[in-house]
Amino acid sequence: MTDLKKLEAETLAAVTAAKDEPALEAVRVGALGKKGSISELLKTLGTMSPEERKTRGADINALKDKVNDAINGKRGELKHAAMGAQLAADKVDVTLPVRLPAAERGRIHPVSQVIDEITAIFADMGFSVAEGPDIETDFYNFTALNFPAGHPAREMHDTFFFNPKPDGERLLLRTHTSPVQIRTMQTQRPPIKVIIPGRTYRCDSDQTHTPMFHQVEGLVIDKVSHLGHLKWILAEFCKAFFEVDDVKMRFRPSFFPFTEPSMEVDIQCDRSGGEVRFGEGTDWLEILGCGMVHPNVLKNVGLDPDEYQGFAWGMGIDRIAMLKYGMPDLRAFFEADVRWLRHYGFRPLDLPTLAGGLSS
Questions:
Q1: Cβ-contact 297, 305 below 8 angstroms
Q2: Which of 6, 257, 293, 302 has the largest count of CB atoms under 10 Å?
Q3: Which of these ranges, 17-21, 89-93, 246-250, 273-277, has the smallest mean pLDDT?
């Protein structure tokens, strides 16, 4: 009996000391398993006399039941404690701000937003969008656009050229989106009304220039379009894009190989106070170039300049985005800084519309 009391005390103490279910299972196996201490005692009953077996068997079975009850009770305690620890680890502080869904956390890049704004404005005027390849031939990028041989824009310091082909031809990264004008006029018959947004490339890099940047050009070809139409389109665009009721524009004579006459366009603004405000003030800011399509360009695409005429214009998308939204450095557009994008970016579902407001 003394041995049973000692075994009972040791086993129950081990059950109480178990810190987790694997430790408790080890105690159970050590006491009640096939070779456990209590199981071994039960095996000795067969060697005893009937009277001794009756007394000894009752004591051993009582010990077995007590240990079983203790193990089951301890297992319940451990499960309850584990559940409490899990709940504590998984708890949510309801006083914290609500986490925004991905559609709210994401941001549209300002360049993408401004392209959508420009497209919305010109689509309302009946323009469609035309696109073309970034890698161009000399013909589409220069020759067809009336760039004479030896023109400075053909030089290496302006243009990214590829290595010459076996036949001597050199492909290049387009320096403007004007090659798409040529491709459009080759594949469509007038009347033509398109805008051409896209990436362009030049060997230049500073606060207001990057080797890769974005331009948008417009092209109208028919039999009656003239400079009055061009001026109206540009004035309406500027009013809609900069969201002002009135805008004063100044057209200055200039030179571009692919237009004649050619003009640069300034818009009236106020640059006092460290920001640019349009529709007021006495300052002028150049925003784009334009002109009537040169007769040689029309001839290069198989159109008779005595029958057809039209106009074109072009502007830097990144530049006008900087002006409208107050971004000081063009290089930040392409640095992939998430902090910058969170600050200047647009929510994905804020689609620009003329009715709802471009930048509302």
A1: no
A2: 293
A3: 273-277
Mean pLDDT of the chain: 86
Q: According to the model, what pLDDT value does residue 95 have? A: 83
Q: For strands 192-201 and 128-129, give the pairing.
A: parallel
Distance separating alpha carbons of residues 332 and 270, to the nearest angstrom: 25
E strand intervals along the chain: 128-129, 135-136, 172-173, 192-201, 212-222, 249-256, 259-270, 277-278, 283-293, 309-316
Q: Domain 107-344: what homologous superfamily?
A: Bira Bifunctional Protein; Domain 2 (3.30.930.10)
Q: What is the DSSP string of 113-174?
A: HHHHHHHHHHHHTT-EE----SEE-HHHHTGGGT--TT-GGGSTTT--BPPPPTTS---EE-
Distances (CA, A) of 265 to 36, 165, 288, 308, 309: 97, 40, 5, 24, 21
d(CA 34, CA 53): 20
For residues 180 and 132, the answer to whether their CB atoms sit within 8 Å is yes
Dihedral of alpha carbons 314, 316, 320, 323, sign: negative
Determine the Cα–Cα distance for residues 291 and 310; give it in Å rounded to an integer: 9
SS3 236: helix
Is the pLDDT score of 77 beyond 60?
yes
Percent of the chain with pLDDT over 70: 94
* Residues in CB range of 179: below 8 A, 6 or more apart: 132, 136, 140, 141, 144, 145
Q: Between 319 and 47, whose confidence is greater?
A: 319
Predicted confidence at residue 207, as pLDDT, reads 61
- Distance between CA atoms of residues 318 and 215, nearest Å: 8
Domain map of the chain by residue range? Answer: 2-90, 107-344
